[in-house]
Amino acid sequence: xxxxxxxxxxxxxxxxxxxxxxxxxxxxxxxxxxxxxxxxxxxxxxxxxxxxxxxxxxxxxxxxxxxxxxxxxxxx
Amino acid sequence: xxxxxxxxxxxxxxxxxxxxxxxxxxxxxxxxxxxxxxxxxxxxxxxxxxxxxxxxxxxxxxxxxxxxxxxxxxxxxxxxxxxxxxxxxxxxxxxxxxxxxxxxxxxxxxxxxxxxxxxxxxxxxxxxxxxxxxxxxxxxxxxxxxxxxxxxxxxxxxxxxxxxxxxxxxxxxxxxxxxxxxxxxxxxxxxxxxxxxxxxxxxxxxxxxxxxxxxxxxxxxxxxxxxxxxxxxxxxxxxxxxxxxxxxxxxxxxxxxxxxxxxxxxxxxxxxxxxxxxxxxxxxxxxxxxxxxxxxxxxxxxxxxxxxxxxxxxxxxxxxxxxxxxxxxxxxxxxxxxxxxxxxxxxxxxxxxxxxxxxxxxxxxxxxxxxxxxxxx
Lengths: 76, 377
Prior knowledge:
The complex is a heterodimer of chains A (76) and B (377). Chain A has helices at residues 17-27, 43-54; strands at 5-8, 33-38, 57-64, 67-73. Chain A has 76 residues and is α+β, with helices and mostly antiparallel strands.
């Protein structure tokens, strides 16, 4: 299994975790998994919202010590 | 200690001058040496391109001779690096020279890549180079009305540029007396009108007040130039008469070619600013992969930190402080009002309502920049 790409967007107000994910998606290959680390609880809703709208796959969301880990898969 | 700085932009220039002042006696005694390699003998004030695009300044105001900005004692060569031999602590240049170093700083910046979106480069106007900003202004001069669409790629340099150009276009068309014939439509990649939540809270009602429409969660997919339609990854289609783009950016090709970082962004420690896995290689400004704004102020504040740290390494063998993620951005809210956003890794910004005073301070900073580049402000 390929190594999961980590996007460490903790402390990112601008451009922010979702923008970092969008940039990361461009660099990823179809089928690749990406894990966004965010200290902004808003990421737990806005990342899944974008993933659903574009048609990628949300694999999971969890919170650990104030950091949200959102795992997605590039679907197309 | 041989300190080699690659790149003569804002970050590299401020760092070189900062170090030269801190290490005056070490430079005289030969204990330290500062060398800068750049691709150009000119230094461009990049934020000025926004004003060039709407005819508010002329191209000559953007430039100074790079050598004139540097402190005495800094060795400066116009000879860009072609190969980074990090295991040997050397770089090779286009001119065939080899430069050895003890400390390397990479500050090569970024470039727009409109060609990454099919149809975009041929069908948009943009303002990230002198040539494109001039072309955009000439197009604006000839524009007599229609639907103007502003669209935004990710990542891009200057996070405030999308909002600023939109407000400035509004006032440009208003001054020309053709605003009633122009429809401004703004698109943005995430689910609000700006990445900074507090900035979006201010900008969105401003758009409503000015009659500027907007569509969020909009990421460019392709441009159908024949039918003048912009298509998004999210499935929507937007017709345009004039397409203004803030294209996605990448780091410089030499970074990618040398395998230092995907898309030209070098993995960088968020506090120490060293390249991940290297203790004597540091990264500044747009070139890092840090999740913060690609902006001149970012490079400036990082350079302040690195200047203090590298000087301390020369004098006492260890860095002394951490970069805290500080960024400061002016936000032009039209032709005569502005506000600003300041934030770091821990604290979000809280921008106030735009005022004329902040706008005039920004106009003053456009001149004061040259003092800033010299490391004096």
